[in-house]
């Protein structure tokens, strides 16, 4: 291939790059041109890729066409590689927070978080001007304590609703597996605790769904495949699941996901394409598709996902719910499929910011000794009842990047920023975040290389007919990355870490749309093969990468809808360990936007109350 070799990009040293508003740094749009295809065309592409001779030629052309060669593989980069996104302890100055004592139990942390909620939490939801509101963890807790309903009654409603979503007329594909017997057993135990007047805490009896990338007994962990659970059996709960269980949460089953997390659409050829509750003919986003859609449809107020490349925040935005990814290391990865060691971690999908805080409190324990450890700063929870008093917040905005989205998203997010600025007096600081596309490609090489390295012992013995067609394409591309590709990607990680540290000297958070597009239509022939859609794929992940590649905390929530009534999300990206500040800002934004929220077309009221 020497005749076709590109001259690599020569990067200037990171400190020489201008990060100011008037920087002359060029904004490079994603260079993806392939048409969206599914069905037979996907199968043909797989056959070509897996051909010994044609496959290597096509992979080379793909990498060259998408600028991986020039921007990463043969690039001239001065910085050394940075192999992890771990952050040491830092002094974070945060407003209106309460420090949490170390060594508290999950239930004790939940109690601390509950004390941070506004005393009149329900007022924003019961306002008659509100078109739609979602039941919160506190709503369920109050209903159980008052005897208005019981966890067992709610569990039965959940099971009836889950069954209805499987009807061929809907075929929502929220879950890969759930057990009537196990759900009812947990609900009966919780109901007895309430009858005795001894609930464990606010999460007792609350329904929580778990992405099928996270170990949760008694279910196998499939990773969205037909085979992975056979070679890696689930023998105990993941650390985050154990903590939820200790709080009395009812773990209702394993949610659907994009196979191996290798896509952002949520289309799974084995378990069905998870459909968007706002429009069942549209995608839900992925890879934590089932978790986001289940929360959106009211089947549970919270769910767990795993975020390796926006996999929590993308479906949260497309389904109109809260998606929260803490700092890398804040939540244990123990019991999570090791598909992306340095970029992935558990995240939270929730009906409201308050629910995200309570769930975060339950699972934000320190890392176990079996994992690499580093010193974490003290844990703070935001005093949401004093969010209105937070001042002097600076929101960093890179205009060229922010505007690389559809007109509806751009206008909606701009309007939301203006509302935040006018209502709270927060300032928007114009900055330049350089090399966005270079970071996306470097992350793609990283997550792909780590995925194939993790699965290599199994793939060498596997019949590829057991793998979905689109996942086979992803694995073929992942397997083409060289050690030089991976090392240069980590050098770009080092550069981006420097850039973001400098930007956080100018602002408290970086603000972006969450996705560049809203939910798009499901292709009729994608159900069996998945699809190839690199243009929409790049648009979906455009604003998510820093959270994973650099290990930064980020949160997204619903701020409006496009002309077709599909949700639009806005994202805050914070400095390491600034989860409390991010939740404050998200709660402030939710307060301004919540009265415009609309009921999804597929929605289940598990508390059986009248809603506007």
Automatic annotation (TrEMBL):
It comes from the Eukaryota. SUPFAM superfamilies: Amidase signature (AS) enzymes. Signal peptide: none annotated. It comes from Ensete ventricosum (Abyssinian banana). InterPro entries: Amidase, Amidase_dom, AS_sf. Keywords: Membrane, Transmembrane, Transmembrane helix. The keyword ATP-binding does not apply. Residues 175-583 form the Amidase domain. The chain crosses the membrane at residues 44-62. This is Amidase domain-containing protein. One of its GO terms (molecular function) is catalytic activity.
């Amino acid at each position: 291939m020497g005749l076709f070799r590109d001259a690599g990009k020569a990067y200037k040293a990171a400190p020489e790059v201008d990060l100011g508003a008037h920087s002359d740094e060029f904004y490079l749009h994603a260079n993806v041109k392939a048409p969206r295809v599914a069905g037979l065309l996907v199968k043909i592409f797989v056959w070509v890729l897996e051909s010994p001779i044609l496959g290597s030629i096509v992979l080379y052309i793909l990498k060259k066409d998408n600028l991986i060669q020039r921007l990463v593989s043969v690039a001239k980069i001065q910085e050394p590689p940075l192999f992890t996104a771990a952050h040491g302890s830092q002094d974070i100055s945060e407003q209106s927070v309460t420090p949490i004592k170390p060594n508290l139990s999950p239930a004790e942390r939940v109690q601390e978080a509950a004390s941070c909620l506004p005393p009149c939490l329900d007022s924003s939801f019961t306002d008659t001007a509100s078109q739609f509101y979602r039941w919160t963890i506190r709503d369920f807790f109050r209903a159980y304590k008052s005897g208005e309903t019981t966890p067992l009654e709610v569990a039965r409603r959940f099971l009836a609703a889950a069954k209805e979503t499987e009807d061929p007329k809907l075929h929502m594909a929220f879950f890969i597996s759930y057990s009537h017997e196990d759900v009812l057993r947990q609900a009966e135990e919780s109901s007895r605790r309430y009858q005795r007047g001894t609930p464990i805490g606010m999460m007792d009896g609350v329904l929580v769904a778990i992405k099928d990338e996270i170990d949760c007994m008694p279910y196998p962990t499939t990773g969205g495949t037909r085979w992975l659970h056979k070679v890696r059996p689930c023998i105990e709960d993941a650390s985050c699941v154990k903590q939820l269980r200790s709080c009395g949460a009812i773990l209702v089953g394993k949610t659907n996901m994009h196979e191996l997390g290798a896509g952002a659409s949520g289309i799974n050829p084995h378990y069905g394409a998870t459909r968007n509750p706002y429009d069942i003919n549209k995608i839900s986003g992925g890879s934590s598709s089932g978790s986001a859609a289940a929360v959106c449809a009211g089947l549970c107020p919270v769910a767990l996902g795993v975020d390796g490349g926006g996999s929590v925040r993308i479906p949260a935005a497309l389904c109109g719910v809260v998606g929260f990814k803490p700092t890398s290391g804040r939540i244990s990865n123990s019991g999570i499929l090791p598909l992306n060691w340095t970029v992935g971690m558990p995240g939270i999908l929730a009906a409201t910011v308050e629910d995200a805080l309570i769930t975060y409190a339950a699972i934000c324990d320190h890392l176990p000794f079996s994992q690499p450890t580093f010193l974490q700063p003290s844990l703070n929870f935001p005093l949401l009842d004093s969010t209105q008093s937070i001042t002097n917040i600076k929101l960093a905005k890179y205009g060229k990047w922010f505007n690389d989205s559809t007109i509806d998203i751009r206008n909606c997010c701009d309007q939301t920023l203006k509302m935040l600025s006018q209502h709270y007096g927060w300032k928007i600081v114009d900055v330049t975040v350089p090399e966005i596309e270079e970071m996306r490609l470097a992350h793609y090489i990283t997550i792909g290389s780590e995925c194939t390295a993790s699965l290599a012992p199994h793939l060498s013995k596997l019949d590829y007919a057991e793998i979905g067609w689109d996942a086979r394409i992803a694995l073929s591309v992942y397997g083409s990355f060289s050690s030089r590709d991976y090392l240069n990607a980590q050098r770009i990680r080092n550069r981006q870490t420097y850039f973001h540290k400098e930007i956080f000297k100018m602002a408290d958070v970086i603000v972006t749309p969450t996705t560049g597009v809203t939910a798009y239509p499901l292709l009729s022939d994608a159900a069996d093969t998945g699809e190839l859609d690199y243009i929409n794929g790049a648009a979906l992940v455009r604003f998510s990468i820093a959270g994973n590649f650099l290990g930064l905390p980020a949160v997204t929530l619903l701020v409006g809808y496009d002309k077709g009534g599909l949700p639009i999300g806005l994202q805050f990206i914070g400095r390491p360990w600034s989860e409390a500040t991010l939740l404050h800002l998200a709660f402030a934004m939710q307060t301004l936007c919540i009265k415009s929220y609309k009921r999804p077309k597929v929605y289940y009221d598990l508390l059986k109350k009248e809603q506007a």
